[in-house]
Structure formats: C-alpha cells, structure tokens
Amino acid sequence: MSRIFRAACALCLILAGPLRAESDAPVVIELFTSQGCSSCPPADALLGELSKREDIIALALHVDYWDYIGWKDKFASPAFTNRQKAYARAAGSRTIYTPQMIVGGADHLMGYRPMDLADLIQAHRAAARPVTLRLRRDGGGLIVQAASERALDKEVVLQLVSYIPEKTVAITRGENAGRTGRYSNIVTSLTPVARWDGRTPLAMRFEMADDTPVVAILQETGAGPIIAAARLR
User: Fold this and answer.
1) What does the pLDDT look like over 119-162, one tens digit per residue?
2) What is the full DSSP assignment across 112-150?
3) What span, in angstroms and rounded, lies between the C-alpha atoms of 94 and 85?
C-alpha cells in the first residue's frame, strides 16, 4: 500500500470519527502552530476537522518564536511557547518545532502525520480511565467535579482553558504572505487553578460567562499525561 494511500485512509478515519466507543472520555490533542510557519497550514486544517468530533478536544496553541520572520501571530503567547518547551523537557528533547501535536499530554507528533495520529487517537480511547471529570454551568458560574476510583499515583493539576472556536486571518507578510489562514479552537488562556491527589472528590466553582467555551484538563505535574478532560462549548 502506498504511503499516500495510507495517509488518505488515515485521514478518512480521523474525519469520520470513532469506529467504536471504547471510552466516554475525550482525547485531548494540542497543536503547537504559528501563522508564520509555512509547514503549519495542513495541520491547522486537520485540527479544524478534529474540532468537530465529540470524542476529541482539539486545541490550537499559537507560539511566538516565528514572529521575528516578519509576521506577528495575532494569537501567539509566550505562555504557549513555554508549555511546548515543558513538553520537550519531559520527553528529554532540547528542540521544539511547528507544527507539533501532543496527544493526551504524552505522545508527540512532529509535522503533518495523519496515519500516526489516527493510531494514537484509537490507543488513547482504549486506555483505562480511573478518573471522571464533569463540567456544568450554574447561574453565571462554572462547576467542576472530579472523582477517582483510587488515590492517584501522582498529583495532578486542574487547568481551565478558554478558546475562540474559529477565526480567519489574512496574512500579508512572512512565510505565509498572501494566504488566508482559517484557525479553529484557538486557545486564549490556559490557567492552573488547583492541585488534586484523587483521595477525595473534587468540587469547585468558578465565575464565568455562560457563552464562553471552556475546557477543563486534569494533567500530571511537569507536563505529564492528561488523565481526564471535559468541555462545554
């Protein structure tokens, strides 16, 4: 089977959604990208398709280290560059690239690799999930609840993520000059709000506008694996 045909098949599987529902817990996919990166548009488009799936939480984190080329990414933040660097340190790597996808906080994919991504999505969906995480809105507030079947092996951090569902940007300078980029699930903030060891149920309330899309992530400290995630669109 040719590589192109296999890639097309993998892309079809990704876009079609899960063949079977191994788990109710969504898989978090973080794309580190930049409007100034000429290799990023295919990955940006793929993330846009992934953002439509209910079993996946697809997040675009725009980094700022491409800004010097001549185009300042309007969504870039040094905080997202630091998050990518933390993932690299956790993996024992000294180098960061775009585009890069991190699946479940654990598996790293450099470049546009739909075949490998399809395999990783299925693997993460099949994994056991001892932690449940739920979100609900309550009179202008956000209620976050989590419970674990057992005490966790490592402490986890609860992070709240705000994002813009979609934006289109006309790029006039840099490597993508003349292109119009369409971006999905653009992260605007990723804020650690609590630590948790799983010994007792977690219940917290945060003030938040009712129409704000939000994601909650429970992740092992030190840019470790994501053990649970939930979303309110």
Assistant:
1) 999 999 999 889 999 999 988 899 999 999 999 999 999 999 99
2) --HHHHHHHHHHHHHS---EEEEEEEETTEEEEEEEESS
3) 8
